[in-house]
Write a structure and sequence with these properties.
Number of helices: 6
Shape: elongated
Strand content: 15-25%
Largest sheet: 4 strands, mixed
Radius of gyration: 21 Å
Number of strands: 9
């Protein structure tokens, strides 16, 4: 059985479970599997960017935001520094006006300092975004081409926990962790060619 879209994934989960009484629950298992994957992965296919208009002290985070990679002012590529909320408010920069130099995240908002002095600025936020939730049978994404086992085993793991089947949960959990590890290793190898120097990067989740 091929697994190339949401409809085929639902069929595969039903087949692997060998149960005909869980059809209505399978979309729930897959939805929870998507949440699990969103929490566990930070890979290149999840990276994207968005222009953020900075005309006030706050701006809304984009839909599906999981964590920031970097944030720059679009006009001169000056990096806007991330500060923890405690550092941000302790420095007192939020009382000043001028070109935004720092930001923090509170709730579902980006908060900037100094306060934009005149008009508006455009910032470009590079960030990790959760894969769009599957809903229609024809829906697909990068995982279906490159790591379909991750979706399948995560869904079966959620089903096993629903069924309170500890043995099955342990089995699917091991398979899920194995593929997750290989996906992360492959992404690191693709991002850093042989001989490249890897430096740590602080992310915000």
């Amino acid at each position: 059985m091929s697994i190339t879209n949401y409809g085929e994934l639902k069929s595969a989960v039903a087949s692997w479970l060998e149960r005909d009484d869980l059809t209505s629950r399978i979309p729930e298992f897959i939805a929870m599997a998507e949440d699990r994957i969103g929490l566990d992965l930070r890979i290149r296919p999840m990276e994207t960017s968005v222009d953020v208009t900075i005309s006030a002290q706050t701006a809304s985070l984009p839909t599906g935001f999981l964590g920031a990679r970097r944030f720059v002012l679009d006009n001169d590529a000056s990096r806007i520094e991330y500060l923890s909320p405690q550092q941000f408010w302790k420095r007192g920069m939020a009382r000043d006006t001028g070109i935004p130099k720092a930001y923090t995240i509170e709730g579902d908002n980006l908060v900037f300092a100094p306060y934009p002095s005149s008009g508006s600025y455009t910032g470009k936020l590079y960030y990790w975004q959760k894969f769009t939730a599957l809903s229609d049978d024809a829906d697909t994404n990068w995982l279906f081409t490159n790591a379909r086992g991750l979706l399948l085993y995560a869904s079966l793991l959620e089903a096993a926990m629903y069924l309170e089947d500890d043995e099955a949960a342990a089995r699917w959990g091991r398979l899920y962790e194995d593929i997750k590890g290989r996906v992360n290793v492959s992404d690191s190898q693709d991002r850093f060619p042989v001989g490249a120097i890897m430096r740590s990067e602080v992310s915000v989740v």
